[in-house]
């Protein structure tokens, strides 16, 4: 049963079980799929991606169905603290044409997932352990000027979930004293990831542009370029690397 905090006039729901979360996620993603699918509808039961053949116009070609095995439909990776375990179509070929992918986040205390976007997918985060400060920022020039460039963020605890609308900038930070973990569901087999720090300072944008945009001098920009041109998604959010 929901409870209300009369000091703030906000209603709260109790933490969901993992099964309840997955049912909720499936329902929401199904609704999104009906209204505006991130990926095209499949035309067959499954299409195990032939990764070696390379991508075609929208996905990967299928390997022969007769060659599919039970193991194709299973995914297993060892979770480690301080890592992001991706299960996109390249890591899990059975996701090809299914319009779905997963990310598991294991964030050490003080660790962050840098602000980033998934331009091809809506995302739902379900907290497995610990607590994670997370949220998103609306468009600067969206449909409603009253919520332009507005942040929606909170600390999500074990058993709670948070949704990130498609394409909007979002982030995660472990503000607790113990490791935190989450399972994130996205409604695309290839949702795309663009990390803002590496996009700005690791892509080769003209240095003068960055100086003017961020009110920084050349030395400051150069220092950030040195950091972000070598960092990958796997380590970029371990904040001790950046200090």
Tag the structure with descriptive keywords.
243 residues; alpha+beta
Compressed to H and E, one letter per element, the order equals: EEHEEEEEEEEEEHHHH
- Global structural class: alpha+beta
Largest sheet: 5 strands, antiparallel
Q: Which value, in Å, is the CA radius of gyration?
A: 20 Å
Q: Report the sheet-strand fraction.
A: 25-35%
Helical residue percent?
A: 10-25%
Shape annotation: globular
Strand arrangement in the largest pleated sheet: 3-4-11-6-9
- Please count the helical segments: 5
Number of strands: 12
Please tell me the overall pLDDT: 84
Unreliable stretches (pLDDT < 50, length at least 5) are 4-13, 32-36, 233-243
First and last CA, distance? 44 Å
Task: Please specify the SSE layout and strand pairing.
Blueprint: E1 3-5, E2 10-12, H1 18-36, E3 83-87, E4 101-107, E5 112-117, E6 123-129, E7 131-137, E8 151-157, E9 161-164, E10 169-173, E11 180-186, E12 194-195, H2 196-201, H3 207-214, H4 218-228, H5 239-242
Antiparallel strand pairs: 1-2, 3-4, 4-11, 5-10, 5-12, 6-9, 6-11, 7-8, 7-10
Task: Produce a short descriptive summary.
The protein has 243 residues and is an alpha+beta fold.
Written overview of the protein:
By secondary structure, the protein is an alpha+beta fold. It is built from five helices and twelve strands. The strands form three sheets. A five-stranded antiparallel β-sheet has the order 3-4-11-6-9, covered by helices on one side. Strand 1 (3-5) and strand 2 form a beta hairpin. Mean pLDDT is 84; it is low at 4-13, 32-36 and 233-243.
């Amino acid at each position: 049963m929901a409870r209300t905090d009369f000091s703030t006039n906000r209603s709260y729901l109790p933490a969901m079980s993992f099964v309840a979360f997955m049912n909720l996620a499936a329902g929401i993603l199904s609704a999104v799929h009906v209204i505006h699918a991130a990926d095209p509808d499949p035309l067959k039961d499954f299409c195990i991606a032939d990764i070696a053949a390379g991508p075609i116009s929208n996905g990967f070609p299928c390997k022969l169905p007769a060659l599919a095995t039970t193991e194709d439909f299973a995914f297993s990776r060892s979770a480690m603290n301080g890592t992001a375990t991706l299960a996109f179509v390249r890591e899990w070929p059975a996701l090809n044409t299914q319009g779905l992918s997963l990310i598991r986040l294991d964030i050490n205390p003080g660790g962050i997932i840098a602000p980033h976007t998934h331009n091809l997918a809506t995302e739902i985060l379900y907290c497995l352990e610990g607590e994670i400060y997370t949220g998103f920022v609306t468009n600067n020039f969206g449909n409603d000027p009253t919520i332009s460039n507005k942040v929606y963020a909170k600390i999500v605890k074990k058993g709670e979930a948070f949704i990130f609308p498609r394409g909007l900038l979002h982030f995660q930070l472990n503000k607790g004293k113990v490791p935190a973990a989450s399972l994130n569901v996205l409604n695309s087999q290839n949702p795309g990831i663009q990390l803002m720090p590496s996009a700005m300072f690791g892509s080769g944008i003209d240095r003068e542009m960055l100086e003017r945009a961020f009110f920084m001098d050349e030395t400051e920009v150069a220092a950030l370029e040195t950091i972000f041109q070598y960092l990958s998604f796997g380590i970029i959010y371990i904040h001790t690397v950046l200090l």
